[in-house]
TrEMBL record:
Record InterPro entries: DNA_Repair-Maintenance_Comp, Metallo-depent_PP-like
Pro residues composition-biased segments: 415-424
Name of the protein described by the UniProt record: Metallophosphatase family protein
Domain of life: Bacteria
PANTHER family (alphabetical): COMPONENT OF ATP-DEPENDENT DSDNA EXONUCLEASE (PTHR30337)
Region (Disordered): 405-424
Length: 472
């Protein structure tokens, strides 16, 4: 029995051209290929749509077209994409065949082109005996998106994040006991759900691993379905075990830059105990992503632009803040004027300037100067000598020495500063803590009138040296 499995149509005003071109092709291909049943495994719309929206009308047209050729099962997808109740309208759009909407956890049997749903999550023994007797063409185990708010209310907020997988695994195991009986009676079994399989790969090549995903492959195969049709992940991928198959068809079209692989729908062949699926590619739009770790290479862009007609192009680059003006956006737009769409993205890296990292941690001026010289690759010895001279020498004497050396010419300048008299104290002794200067200041103030103060440099006059002049 042949199934046409579509997923993630994402009809919306922004996606209308892509969604409708790809889905209309897929519907026509499935009809021409002789598919017996159509399955849409969630996210038919991208968000809430008004009744008069062209996107909703286009989607309804294709669903009605499909229902005129085969029975169609539609599954409730992500609530943000398909607000609850959105699919109820599509149940009224059936043509020759029914369009049942799977918006609750249940099992659904297809008997002579008509769908019959279980009263509970799985068929009861009485229902099972009844359906096995009439030999349905297929029995679906439908598991739509679970409302995590309701789950949190029943198991608690702390368990809702990681407990969803356990709850769904328990249901799939219960459904597996029923599906084993159906398969033993020669009836096909198919699972349909919408969610993330732990370990699957997204359309951008990212592996989804964690404890908050809905399914594990073990739980899905324990449902004992011949084929399990999934939606939500936009990249086509399959897993096989003992002839049974679990698969994503991926999105019907290409909706984001950087998506990997072909886009399309899956054509399934399902028999009791075995299943196979083949991807049928749709005419999805082609996207070119060009990334530069620096300014764009205009020569390379010009080469790529020659083959970019009717394609969607994204150009990304990153530059330092001081070089941001070297990129000519208008020239890039001119190169890709023939493309179907162009998106340019620049990342400007801010310039980080460190004046002297760690200098504020030094407790003495000598230490701060030594740290600065180390970071600036400057010889510290001459500067340290001059700092000692400033701290302990007479200001007028130092100035007079400098003027005398300049007047005598460069050839007579000493190669090193004059040596300090042996009686001059060291810098550490001069630059004491400001609190220790109070007593010294009082003594200077109490000096007799007429004392010559010009040649005496008090520690208080050097307070400015204690400031963190080189702090970052």
């Amino acid at each position: 029995m042949r199934f046409a499995h579509f997923s993630d149509l994402h009809y919306a005003p922004d996606n209308l051209a892509e969604s409708n071109r790809c889905f209309s092709f897929a519907v026509g291909n499935a009809i021409d290929g002789g598919a017996h049943v159509g399955v849409i495994s969630g996210d038919s719309t991208d968000h809430r749509l008004d009744a008069h929206a062209p996107a909703l009308h286009a989607l309804a047209t294709q669903i009605h077209r499909l229902a005129n050729a085969m029975p169609v099962l539609m599954l409730q997808g992500t609530f943000s994409h398909e607000p609850p109740g959105t699919l109820d309208n599509f149940a009224l759009m059936g043509g020759v065949h029914q369009i049942p909407v799977a918006d609750r956890v249940s099992q659904v049997a297809l008997v002579d082109g008509r769908f019959w749903a279980s009263k509970g999550p799985v068929f009861s023994d009485d229902e099972l005996r009844q359906f096995i007797g009439v030999m349905p063409e297929v029995v679906f185990t439908s598991l739509p998106t679970v409302n995590k708010g309701q789950l949190a209310a029943s198991v608690g907020a702390l368990e809702a994040g990681t407990g969803l997988g356990d709850v769904l695994a328990a249901y799939l195991a219960a459904a597996g006991r029923v599906n084993r009986q159906l398969r033993a009676a020669g009836i096909r079994t198919v699972g349909v759900s919408h969610g993330t399989v732990n370990g699957c790969t997204t359309e951008h090549g990212v592996t989804m691993a964690g404890f908050d995903h809905e399914f594990s492959l073990t739980a899905l195969f324990e449902a004992e379905c011949d084929g399990f049709m999934l939606g939500h992940i936009h990249k086509e991928q399959q897993w096989e075990r003992d002839g049974r198959l679990v698969a994503y068809p991926g999105s019907i079209g290409r909706f984001h830059y950087g998506e990997e692989g072909e886009k399309g729908y899956l054509s399934w062949d399902v028999e009791p105990g075995s299943a196979s699926a083949t991807l049928v590619a749709t005419p999805s739009r082609q996207m070119i992503c060009i990334d530069f770790d620096g300014p764009p290479d205009m020569a390379k862009l010009q080469e790529l632009a020659a083959d970019a007609a009717d394609k969607f192009v994204r150009v990304r680059w990153q530059v330092d803040e001081e070089h941001r003006q070297v990129v000519d956006r208008e020239a890039i737009k001119a190169l890709f004027s023939g493309a179907a769409g162009l998106k340019v993205e620049s990342r400007v890296l801010p310039v980080v300037r460190s004046r002297a990292q760690g200098i504020s941690l030094e407790t003495t001026v000598e230490g701060k100067l030594a740290r600065w010289c180390e970071l600036a690759s400057v010889d510290a010895s001459p500067l340290q000598d001059r700092l000692q001279l400033l701290a302990s020498g007479d200001v007028e004497a130092i100035a007079a020495g400098v003027l005398a050396s300049r007047a005598s010419g460069p050839e007579s300048q000493p190669e090193s500063p004059p040596e300090m008299p042996p009686e001059m104290p060291a810098l550490a002794a001069v630059l004491t803590h400001p609190a220790a200067l109070l007593e010294t200041t009082d003594e200077v103030t109490a000096a007799p009138v007429g004392t010559d103060m010009k040649a005496t440099a008090t520690p208080a006059s050097l307070d400015w040296l204690n400031d963190d002049l080189f702090a970052a």
